């Protein structure tokens, strides 16, 4: 592989997650402080991308498979998405905001798997090289957080998070036409191929893993959606929150490069996943304590540990537990259950829980959130997930014959 292709794919991955990371941590604060959306409305808004992820990738995948080169589809999608995000920055009413957020999500969601496809088709050694390309996505998320904090210090207009994402999306879209040519395949993939993996749910261990993955994904929204407003209530300057929250992505890189290669071969799949699940209630317990602020900040890197040891190791488990012919379908099913259904319902659920434990402000002041009660909910659910997983899940015995994984 030429250095030029490596650089272009790395820059693609960096921009892909820059666009997402630019708005994601700060939008909940903007919806609270400027737009005055209710907690439930904010939860719905934060679920739009995940809802779109259950629909758009199938449509986009068929277009890229049948009719259009992947890099061209990526470029058009990102330019249109960038325009939607720039328009979104000018909206203040709920329904126009929701419609534009949904439209942006429908343009952006297909590009998440598409970037992987472009890498897979242009890397000579995917197993060796893809991890080093993908890590630039996490770096892009980190850089966007620091860029937003710097911009907000210069101009404390919360809509800058969407402008930063929108401008980056347009630049990314134009750049996409310079990516390696990735023509459509002669045969289109099956849009609902993941249904072939449903037979794996006959395996009690696999079924347990999928159910727990769904529940854990819903509780992840208590971090993504609520951490920003929570830190603001604790007294952190809102413009500093995007930079501080990148501690999670920094920890993700460390966990992926340093911890996972050491722990997984020694602890095995079961205990590695258990580490990821247990880190969730530990973090939420610290959140529920309500301070001090330095302890809350110190707990943010637990997100990186949670993500790598639960989701990444979970993907490894699904790959090993699935017969060769349906491994892609099994991964699609896992993504649909977690990133799609789990995160969609999780955003609405987190917003609903927050609204339950929010009381009107004194003398017409800002509403008061009982964050301790809010975070007790994910504590209880993730502890139950951890206990169930440790009791029911069995370390997979991987045989040479792929049929053995169907037991």
Task: List strands and helices in order, with pairings.
Layout: H1 3-24, H2 27-33, H3 39-52, H4 56-66, H5 70-88, H6 94-108, H7 111-122, H8 126-154, H9 160-176, H10 204-224, H11 227-233, H12 241-245, H13 247-289, H14 293-299, H15 302-321, H16 327-356, E1 358-359, E2 368-369, H17 371-392
Antiparallel strand pairs: 1-2
Please tell me about this protein's structure.
With 407 residues, this protein is an all-alpha fold. It contains 17 helices and 2 strands. It has helices at 3-24, 27-33, 39-52, 56-66, 70-88, 94-108, 111-122, 126-154, 160-176, 204-224, 227-233, 241-245, 247-289, 293-299, 302-321, 327-356, 371-392; strands at 358-359, 368-369. A two-stranded antiparallel sheet has the order 1-2. Strand 1 and strand 2 form a beta hairpin. Helix 5 runs antiparallel to helix 9 (160-176) and helix 8 packs across helix 13. The protein is globular. Mean pLDDT is 88; it is low at 399-407.
In short:
With 407 residues, this protein is mostly helical.
Low-confidence stretches: 399-407
Structural class label: mainly alpha
Instruction: Give the rounded overall mean pLDDT.
Output: 88
Termini gap: 40 Å
Oligomer: single chain
Strand content: under 5%
Number of strands: 2
Give the ordered list of helices and strands.
HHHHHHHHHHHHHHHHEEH
Which key features would you list for this structure?
407 residues, disordered C terminus, 17 helices, two-stranded antiparallel sheet, mainly alpha, 74% helix
């Amino acid at each position: 592989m030429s250095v030029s292709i490596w650089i272009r794919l790395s820059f693609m991955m960096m921009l892909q997650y820059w666009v997402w990371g630019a708005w994601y941590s700060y939008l909940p604060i903007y919806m609270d402080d400027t737009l005055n959306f209710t907690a439930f409305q904010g939860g719905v808004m934060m679920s739009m991308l995940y809802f779109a992820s259950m629909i758009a990738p199938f449509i986009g995948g068929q277009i890229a498979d049948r009719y259009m080169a992947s890099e061209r589809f990526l470029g058009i999608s990102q330019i249109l998405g960038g325009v939607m995000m720039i328009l979104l920055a000018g909206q203040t009413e709920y329904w126009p905001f929701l419609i534009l957020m949904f439209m942006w999500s429908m343009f952006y969601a297909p590009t998440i798997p598409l970037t992987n496809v472009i890498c897979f088709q242009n890397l000579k050694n995917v197993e060796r090289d893809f991890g080093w390309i993908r890590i630039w996505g996490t770096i892009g998320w980190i850089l966007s957080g620091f860029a937003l904090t710097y911009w907000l210090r210069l101009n404390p207009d919360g809509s800058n998070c969407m402008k930063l994402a929108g401008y980056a999306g347009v630049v990314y879209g134009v750049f996409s036409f310079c990516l390696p040519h990735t023509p459509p395949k002669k045969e289109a993939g099956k849009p609902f191929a993941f249904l072939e993996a449903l037979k794996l749910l006959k395996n009690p261990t696999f079924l347990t893993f999928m159910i727990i993955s769904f529940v854990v994904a819903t509780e992840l929204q208590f971090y993504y959606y609520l951490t920003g407003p929570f830190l603001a209530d604790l007294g952190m300057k809102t413009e500093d929150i995007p930079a501080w929250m990148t501690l999670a992505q920094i920890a993700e890189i460390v966990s992926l490069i340093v911890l996972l290669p050491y722990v997984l071969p020694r602890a095995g799949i079961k205990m590695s996943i258990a580490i990821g699940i247990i880190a969730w209630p530990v973090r939420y317990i610290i959140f529920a304590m309500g301070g001090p602020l330095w302890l809350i900040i110190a707990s943010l890197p637990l997100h990186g540990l949670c993500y790598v040891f639960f989701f990444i190791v979970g993907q490894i488990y699904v790959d090993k537990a699935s017969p060769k012919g349906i491994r892609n379908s099994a991964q699609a099913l896992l993504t649909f259950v977690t990133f799609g259904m789990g995160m969609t319902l999780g955003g609405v659920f987190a917003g609903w829980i927050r609204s339950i434990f929010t009381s009107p402000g004194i003398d017409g002041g800002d509403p008061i959130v009982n964050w301790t009660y809010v975070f007790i909910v994910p504590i209880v659910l993730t502890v139950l997930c951890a206990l169930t997983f440790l009791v029911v899940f069995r370390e997979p015995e991987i045989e040479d014959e792929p049929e053995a994984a169907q037991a």
